[in-house]
Amino acid sequence: MGALLCGFMDDSNTKSDVPKHLRAPAVAGVTAIQAIATMAVVMPASIAPEITSQFDLPSSYVGYQISVTYVGAIMMSLAAGLMVRRFGAIRVNQISALAVCVSLLMFAIPHFSALIIGSLGIGVAYGITNPGASHVMMKIASPRNRNLIFSIKQTGQPLGGIVAGLMAPPIAVAFGWQWALVVGAALAFMMVLVIQPLRAPLDADRDPNTVFRGAVFRDVRFMLGDTRLRQLAMAALSLSAVQLVLMAYAVTMLVEDISFSLVLAGIGLAALQVAGVIGRLGWGLVADRIGSGSLTLIIIAVISIGAALATAMLTPSTPSWIIFTTLIVFGLSAVGWNGVFMAEIARLAPDGMVSSATGGVMVAVFLGVMSGPLIFNQIYGWLGTYTASFAAMAVITIIGIVAVAQLMLLERRKST
């Protein structure tokens, strides 16, 4: 990925307000913070059987913990655009990493109230990452490579899932689940320090006089008032619900329905996240090549439906290579759409309004990821298996396809 970053950051045709020598560090920095925030979100799910046994709860209850996390994300997404304008995009990313550190340490306290507070804190951290990152990316990207640049940044999400899937289960088994969270907190604090050199040059456009009072819901009103952004938000609500369900329940499904060990299930989670990284880069290239992010999103959603239906057929007797192949295809699609989606927000946003448009649309994303586990848990209660429940979630993906198709129709009518 380093070579990919350097190649595109040094492109002389790339219009950028960021000095050439800072472009690759800027993309790498915000990508790393995205990875840290996602790691914090995914980590409890990656060791869900260990955590829920501590509180004598069914493993399926991890969905409720995820929903609490995204309550915090929604709350902070409302103010994220304003925070970027007042404090600067890099400072906001540092605040996110510091919030991850504190929240994971709180989560490690074996008490139910600490779990709730820690979950909210992780959500707060996650909710402010994307608007700041998009603000930086739009300074670097050009129309020619916008989808790829945003897709590179969005690889932070599956990379964070990879870290959680490979690191947390072995540490939890060897030393206890709290130590996995402590290690995650240490990584988050390290990133606060690593990106500090970017603060002065990249936050020069901040406005310390930005006022929060009475303006917290402005980004949401802005999104709702724009028909195209509103359609994109509806699509994101459905796609994000399915993505979060996959990330939250993959380990539990592999352990309880497929009879994998916790460590092997963690490898499965990492595999689908690796596929997500490849998917985000690949789909970004596809979208730039065909010149349509919206059409690319529809293609991704159709593949995701196929993977969800295939998941319903998995059993303990299914060969491991088929199980991992299904996870990889699911990861390529259900985890691979975000980069193209973020680029679409930037494309549709008026000049100077990228962080506001991103903040407004991200509220819909977080509503999706908050409601997805709740819906999935209810479906699981009806069907009794996680594999069949994943297939049922394909219906939600269809809603996303319809929304993107309507967006394409709106743009076609506008151009004629």
Topology (elements, then pairings):
Elements: H1 2-9, H2 20-46, H3 48-54, H4 62-87, H5 89-107, H6 112-127, H7 129-140, H8 146-154, H9 156-175, H10 177-194, H11 199-202, H12 218-225, H13 227-256, H14 262-290, H15 293-311, H16 320-334, H17 338-348, H18 354-383, H19 386-392, H20 394-415
Structural account:
- The protein is mostly helical.
- It has a single domain (20-195, 216-415), classed as Growth Hormone, Chain: A.
- Helices cover 81% and strands 0% of the residues.
- The chain has helices at residues 2-9, 20-46, 48-54, 62-87, 89-107, 112-127, 129-140, 146-154, 156-175, 177-194, 199-202, 218-225, 227-256, 262-290, 293-311, 320-334, 338-348, 354-383, 386-392, 394-415.
- Helix 2 (20-46) packs across helix 9 and helix 4 (62-87) packs antiparallel against helix 5.
